[in-house]
Specification:
- It is a single chain.
- The longest helix has 28 residues, at 141-168.
- The chain has a single domain, classed as Rossmann fold (3-Layer(aba) Sandwich).
- It is built from eight helices and nine strands.
- 38% of the residues lie in helices and 16% in strands.
- With 282 residues, it is an alpha/beta fold.
- Helix 1 links the parallel strand 1 (10-13) and strand 2 (36-41).
- The protein has a seven-stranded parallel beta sheet, with helices on both faces. The protein has a two-stranded parallel ribbon with strand order 5-6.
Length: 282
């Protein structure tokens, strides 16, 4: 039996309130291995996606905490809006008081809105845009700024705070796993989302190079389509033929790879972008 070496480790997972989401599945995977969980969440009242997805995003972490505790896991949750940079150190302070120093950081929280350069009068020429439940907005300063703030700036500040605590405690072991998309290099109809995740991948490589001296590994997952409540049946039918393994992903598919990157078995992997998408966009 392989021992991942995660028992007793303190893990901070951001964006973990959707019971059907990647954050929740990741937290549960760590809990089953004996890790102690600090869950961040931010409830969104209005947002894009299906009605089911919006309902999940409005929830607190109570359901996820209950599921973790049902398998004997130890977990606490803290709500914070990372649009406020001052909330980042506060989350780490809460985590340290509840569980001790954070040793694994999973940057899963994200913002998404569909946006495009295609003028409104030309939209019918792009059938892909018609598959979304929300029509793509024109690229704008407001939409782009909000997504970069959530998807690139907030993770960078979280990494900075992780590194600060790590060095204060003179720790020798740490793991950071960032969540991106396999569309980051080119994402028509999701222009700002893709660009902000591309920035996150650059941040990952810089952090890996700078923080390796402290025993911290930093890696990023580029995800294919994962069903967290946002994929409609129509969109799924369009996506499946583009995935060699013949199905969209489930949150557990991602969680298992996150756990691997945090494990002792991945101790000599850093600065890597790993595609997790059933072969989508390989």
């Amino acid at each position: 039996m392989i021992d991942p070496g995660l028992r007793g480790r303190c893990v901070l997972v951001t964006g973990a309130n959707n019971p059907l989401g990647i954050g929740a599945a990741t937290a549960m995977a760590f809990a089953r291995l004996g890790a102690r969980l600090c869950l961040h969440y931010h409830r969104t009242i209005d947002g894009p996606g299906t009605a089911q997805y919006r309902e999940q995003q409005r929830k607190s972490c109570d359901e996820v905490l209950e599921a973790i505790r049902s398998v004997g896991g130890d977990a606490h949750a803290f709500e914070a809006d990372f649009a406020d940079p001052d909330s980042v150190p506060i989350v780490f302070e809460h985590a340290e008081r509840a569980m001790g120093r954070v040793e694994v950081l999973v940057n899963n929280a994200a913002a998404w809105r569909s946006d495009t350069f295609v003028p409104m009068r030309e939209r019918t020429r792009n059938p892909y845009l018609e598959l979304f439940t929300d029509p793509a907005e024109p690229v704008s300063a407001a939409v782009s700024t909000a997504q970069f703030a959530a998807n690139a700036v907030a993770p960078a500040l979280l990494i900075r705070e992780f590194a600060r605590q790590h060095t204060v405690h003179q720790a020798q072991w740490g793991r950071i796993i960032n969540i991106s998309t396999d569309g980051s290099e080119c994402f028509p109809s999701e222009v700002s989302y893709g660009a902000s995740k591309y920035a996150l991948e650059s941040i990952t490589r810089s952090a890996a190079l700078e923080l390796g001296q402290f025993g911290i590994t930093v890696n990023v997952l580029a995800l294919g389509p994962v069903q967290t409540g946002w994929i409609t049946p129509e969109l799924e039918r369009a996506l499946v033929p583009t995935i060699p393994l013949g199905r969209v992903g489930m949150p557990g598919d991602v969680a298992d790879v996150v756990v691997f990157l945090a494990s002792e078995q991945a101790r000599w992997m850093t600065g890597q972008k790993i595609f997790v998408g059933g072969g989508h966009k390989m």
